[in-house]
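Chapter summary example: a protein plus oxa(dethia)-CoA.
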Amino acid sequence: MANGTGGRFDGGGARRRVKVTSLGTYVPPRVLTNADLERLVDTTDAWILKRTGIRERHVVDEGVASSDLGKEAAIAALAEAGVSPEQIGFIVVATTTPDMFFPSTACLVQHKIGATNAWGFDLGAACSGFTFALTTGAQMVASGAHDHALVIGADVMSSIIDFQDRATCVLFGDGAGAVVVSPAADGEPGIIDFAHEIDGSGGPALCMPAGGSLRPATRETVDARLHYVHQDGPAVFKFAVRKMSEICRRVLEANGLDAGDVDLFVSHQANRRIIMSAAEHLGVDRDKVIVNIERFGNTTAATIPLALADARREGRLPKGARVLLASVGAGFTVGAVLLRWAG
Ligand code: UT7
């Protein structure tokens, strides 16, 4: 059977309910603390902790790429699901830091894990990568096209961070998370709904200015340090707080729910203050909010699975829990996924 066989457009496929079957995460072992950053740029542990909530982040050693982190997370998720790599029909890798422009990181992960019957692709939605990818993978299973989708968020942000820029280098870390999405049996908890938006007017607020088709790499672009993350922090901050609560309200209202019905709020981890303000605007109790940015920083497409894993480890993610995932990222991209935890 050829890779990716499946799916039909003749009306014969029936929509199915779907669930997140399993969760796997991976961070590289090396830890970069705020004290380490104090030695690189004009910053302090106190400033970073107060303004962002971050104490430390994990970073890769040279030669380790997003596909390597994604592979580890994928293997863990597959093992937990009891699904073999050959049973995966579709792989989507959300990443802002692909190993290279092409081939896609999805192809590299497919090969590394031996998912010989899968097709797939990379998805670019920056910090909303995981919510966008989860919705995409869920559609592939819900449509009947595939029985098992592998949804991965993997980023090596340290590869595009300017460690001379104190405004950005303190914020990010490296990591990966993966889930297997499969059909849900009758009565089983599953994915309920999603809402997404993009707003390209926000593009200049958070971008990597060079290296793409607009400004290919030249000696000048390298000298001008244009191959790194550039961010208007306060602009992104304001947009994130407003949009995070808006998109959440939208998905809750569409399902006749309100903030009081949410058991766990698992937002993208960019800044503790953004998460807590969004939760407050939305009306979600503080004890239902997961914050683990302290140990990982902003790992872009990996923050939500890393937060889910911590919630589960702490016993805060029981089967059936109503979970609201939310994200805002460069683009701007905005996402919310509402689900009942089935793991
Ligand atoms: O995942 C989606 C993408 N990213 C985000 O969601 C991030 C959104 N933005 C933020 O989280 C915050 O805007 C930051 C954490 C990036 C910055 O916090 P802020 O409270 O908005 O600070 P600011 O940019 O307004 O800067 C305040 C001051 C400035 O000094 P002056 O001009 O007031 O003298 C900065 O130069 O803090 C200074 N500053 C620092 N000081 C010490 C900026 N970075 C640092 C630093 N250490 N690392």
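Key point: The chain has two domains: 2-183, 191-340.
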